Amino acid sequence: MEFAAVTTLNALTLISILLLVGLGLAISFGLMNVTNLAHGEFVTIGAFTVYFVQSLGGSFWFGLLAAPVVGGLVGMVLEYAVIRHLYSRPMSTILATWGISLVLQQSLELAFGLGAKPVSPPVEGTVDLIVAVYPAYRLILIGIAAATLTAVILLVNRTSFGLDIRTVIQNREMAEGVGINTRRSYAIAFAFGAAIAGLAGGLVAPLAIVLPQMGVNYLANAFFVVIVGGAGSIAGLLAGSVFVGGLTSILNYQISPSLAQALVLLAAIIVVRLRPNGLLGGAFR
Amino acid sequence: MTERDRNWLTLFATGLILLIVYPFFADGYQLTVIRDALIFGLFAASLDFFWGRTGILCFGHAAFFGLGGYVMALITLNGSVPLAGLVGLLGAIAAAALLAAVIGYFLFFGGIRGSYFTIVTLATGVICQQAAISWSSVTGGDSGLIGIPPLEIDFAGIRIDLGQDLASYVFISIIVAIVVLLLWQLSRGRWGKVLTAIQDNEVRAAALGHNASLRLLLTFVVSAAIAGLAGALYVCMAGLIAPDLSGLLLSTEVTVWVAVGGRGTLLGPVVGALVIQRAQQEISSFNPSLWPLILGLLFIVIVFALPDGVLSIFSRLKAIFRKTEPAR
Question: Any stretches that span the bilayer, and where are they (chain A) (predicted)?
Answer without folding.
Answer: 12-31, 60-83, 95-116, 136-156, 186-211, 223-247, 259-276
